[in-house]
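Weekly structure sync - notes
Attendees: PM, LS, DV (DV joined late)
Agenda: review two folding runs queued last week.

Item 1: First target. Sequence and structure tokens pasted below for the record.
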Amino acid sequence: MYVKPYERDLMDVEAYRLHKLLYVYLSPVIVVVGIVGNALSFIVLLQRPLRRVSTYCYLIVLAVADTLVLTVGLLPKWIKQVFNAIRLLLTL
């Protein structure tokens, strides 16, 4: 696991190590489940009878916005964390 220089002292704390492990291994699961769930919601909410109700239009926008947050927010941070760890392993 990639540890930044200022994190070395924090790695002695068990709660911080747990946070790092959850971040590395749980983030991709959240991204995949979130994107699949939002895609299914989007498909279901696009049915003709549902599009007429304004509430369902808001839910469609929410599904799109949530997918954007997952792909623009969480995914790049996770990729950066993983590639920093790979780069560190390659330099050893």
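Item 2: Second target, run right after the first with the same settings.
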Amino acid sequence: MISRGPNLGSLREKLGLTTGDVETASERLARKHDNEEYLITTSRLSDFETRASPAFTSCTLRQLCTVVNLAKC
């Protein structure tokens, strides 16, 4: 089984993003859609990246993908 958390952190770093960048982009997305579920705080992202088996849902993964694309713009 592949550990997703460390892979997520490595990918974020390869993209040149900090956890703060991801949080800022998620805040913009949450405001745009008027939906707090898009908010990914730095502590939540850190939990995802450091847990051996983070509790990802398909919705969470979709949020992260959307946020990372926004953060790179």
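Discussion on item 2: The chain has one domain: 4-71.
Action: LS to circulate a short write-up before next sync.
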